[in-house]
Amino acid sequence: MSLRPDWLSALAAFESAARHQNFAHAGEELHLTASAVSHHVRKLEARLGVVLFQRHARGVALTAEGRQLADAASTAMADLEGVLGGLRAASDDSDRVRVSTLHSLAYTWLLPRLPLFAAAHPHLRLSFDTEIALTRFDEGGADLAIRHGPGHWPGLSAHLLMGDTLFPVASPAFPGLARITQAAHVARLPLVSDLSRQGWHDWFRAAGVHGTNLDERYSFSDATDALNAAAFGLGAALARERVAAPYLAAKRLLRLPGPGVPARWNYYVVYPAHRPLRPAARVFLDWLLAVPVD
Hints:
Residues 1-63 form the HTH lysR-type domain. This is LysR substrate-binding domain-containing protein. Helix content is 42%, strand content 21%. It is built from ten helices and 13 strands. The strands form three sheets. Strands 7, 8, 9, 10, 11 and 12 form a six-stranded mixed beta sheet that branches. The protein has a five-stranded mixed beta sheet with strand order 4-3-5-13-6. Strand 3 (96-101), helix 5 (103-120) and strand 4 form a beta-alpha-beta unit. The longest helix has 29 residues, at 64-92.
């Protein structure tokens, strides 16, 4: 037996009545009268040649045949709602860009520049996920990621965003800072580090300072936490220029003597190479690559 279009309204009335076990409540849900629901159900019973409900004074109850059809109708409605919800979500998200990035870069470099993007593209919406772990570009996940690394990852397209430079910083109020006049003197201070692959030993080696015992007293997983620790006077932190810029501008941190060492890793914008970017994500990528980095 084929399912004709004119059966759909009767099936919808039946499915609602079966859930509520009540024609009046089904009518309220469907904006119909109880008698209209009853009419749809009777029409369905007549076409199928079976009784779907037992009618009695206190209401209605499904028959065995009615329960069988109710289970199938409920499953079909749930499947339809899932598909419709997915289509609706895809439509609603057409103007949303999902971005994964490091918390340190988002807080100190990206956020101060986002008002420029918002002014140029007020119709687009942005969602950010800040984490250290590498992004998984699952379906429904990030469109773009900003990564700090060597610039090549299997299966990803990578665009250079900017380079970086490392140098030591400390709070201007740190005791005895006036006596720190050369790179070797920095080793006298308690040192704050983060999980960057390029750390204090690399900087002192590049600065020509050797044979010194380093007091790496505090370690943080996030670069902004390390900078905040230095700003609160715990010691000297090895700063990345892009992340430290607002701290230096606000005079919460002071650059210490010694060279700026080019970072071995740079910042890149990446996305899966096997699938095209959605239009909204392409707009944000183009803006990122064009925005002034300094």
